[in-house]
UniProtKB/TrEMBL annotation:
InterPro entries: DUF3606
Protein name: DUF3606 domain-containing protein
Amino acid sequence: MSASQDVLKPRFAQHIDIHCPDDRAYWAGHFGVSGDELRSAVKLVGSRVSTVAAHLGRQAA
């Protein structure tokens, strides 16, 4: 089983729950950033996946 399969799917498809370790790990892996980078992005632009993706220059789910 690969590392990406070990991470649970996020609880919400459109928002990142930055306080949930599983969600944080999933979205950090999805966007290819560290947990700290993801936390900073959410702090700057909010928790909507599409907004965070645009801020990071990545594709949304």
